[in-house]
Design brief:
This protein has helices at about 5-10, 55-75, 125-140, and strands at about 20, 25-30, 40-45, 80-85, 100-105. The chain is α+β, with helices and mostly antiparallel strands. A hairpin with a 3-residue loop joins strand 1 (about 20) and strand 2 (about 25-30). It is about 30% helix and about 15% strand. The protein has a 5-stranded antiparallel beta sheet, covered by helices on one side. It has a single domain, classed as 2-Layer Sandwich (HIT family, subunit A), CATH 3.30.428. The protein contains 3 helices and 5 strands. The protein starts with 5 loop residues before the first helix and ends with a helix.
Length: about 140
Amino acid sequence: MGDRCIFCKIVNGAESSVVYKDEICTAFMDVQPVNMGHVLIIPNKHVELICDLDDETVSHMFVIAKKINKAIRKSSLKCEGINYFLADGEAAFQEVFHTHLHCFPRYENDGFGLTFSEEYYEKPARKNLDKAANEIRKKLSSKST
C-alpha cells in the first residue's frame, strides 16, 4: 500500500513538517489544518482502521498525542483547548485510509464546529440504551474482540 498511500509516503520520507517520529509512529503537521498547530499522529505501519491496530501502537499514539497537546499549550500558537479526532471508516469521514489521530488547538470563535441531526436532541429511551449496551458488552466478552 505504501506506493499509493500518502501517509506511508510520509513515513518513508516524503515532504512533510514532522513534529515527532520513532519506530512506532510519526506525527506531522496537517496540510489543511483546522487551526495552526493541527498535528496528525499515524502508525508507521499501514493499517486502515484503529480496531486492526495492536494495543501497543494505539496506546503509543495517544501517549504521543498527549505530549503534543502539552507542547502546543506551551507554544506561542493560539490555543484555549485541544480536540482529538479520529475518523474510523468512510462513513465516519475518514478520507485517508491509514489510521490517523488528529490533535489540534481550539479557541473561541475559531470557526470549527460539529453539526447534529434533529434526532440528536431527542434522548433515546433507557431500554434502547440498555439494549445497545448489552450487544456491545456481549461482543466485548467474546473471543473475537
